[in-house]
Amino acid sequence: MAKRSLFRRVLGVGVIAGAAYAVWRAIEANRPEGDTDWEPQPFPFPPQPRATAPATTPTTASTTASVPASTLDAPAAAPTSAPDPRVDAIDGACPTSHPVKAANGSKVFHVPDGQMYDRTTAAHCYRDAAAAEADGLRQAKR
């Protein structure tokens, strides 16, 4: 009798696991291929979605043959505006592009490998230490 009960339990667990796997595969198969990429955030915050450019088709020799050679050899144009060296923090966390934290009122900024970096709740985030100093802040002593 005990073998029959054990067999039923194992069979029941197998059926449930198979159904869960089938549901997971159905969800994955129907998930749209979006143009969203995920940007990692500091520990307690989940990744944030960011839109990415759609994939471009590779150029072939036939399409580049119609373009003048002077256009192909020209260097890429510089961006029209530089990214902002300071951004506001979101819920006290800085994006990975602006890792330097600055708190309100203290006029001190913290770099990622500083002792108090993880404890600092940021109000503003800077691209680098030079940008924070240019904004009138000083680096933390520890």
Fold and architecture overview:
- With 142 residues, the protein is α+β, with helices and mostly antiparallel strands.
- Helix content is 32%, strand content 15%.
- The protein has a 5-stranded mixed beta sheet.
- A hairpin with an 8-residue loop joins strand 1 and strand 2 (48-51).
- The longest helix has 29 residues, at 2-30.
- It is elongated, with a radius of gyration of 27 Å.
- The termini are far apart.
- 8% of the residues are buried.
- The mean pLDDT is 80.
Largest sheet: 5 strands, mixed
Instruction: Quickly count the helices.
Output: 4
Neighbour order of strands in the largest sheet: 3-6-4-5-7
Average pLDDT, all residues: 80
Rg, nearest Å: 27 Å
Strand content: 15-25%
Number of DSSP E strands: 7
Shape: elongated
The amount of helix comes to 25-40%
Order of helices and strands: HEEHHEEEEHE
Model regions low in confidence, pLDDT < 50 over at least 5 residues: none
Rounded to the nearest angstrom, the distance between the terminal CA atoms is 70 Å
What structural category characterises the helix and strand content? Answer: alpha+beta
Q: Which key terms come to mind for this protein?
A:
five-stranded mixed sheet; 142 residues; two-stranded antiparallel ribbon; alpha+beta; elongated
Write a brief caption for the model.
With 142 residues, the chain is an alpha+beta fold. The protein has helices spanning 2-30, 61-65, 69-73, 129-134, and strands spanning 36-39, 48-51, 86-88, 100-102, 108-110, 124-126, 138-139.
Topology (SSEs and partners):
Elements (H helix, E strand, L loop, with lengths): L1 H29 L5 E4 L8 E4 L9 H5 L3 H5 L12 E3 L11 E3 L5 E3 L13 E3 L2 H6 L3 E2 L3
Parallel strand pairs: 5-7
Antiparallel strand pairs: 1-2, 3-6, 4-5, 4-6
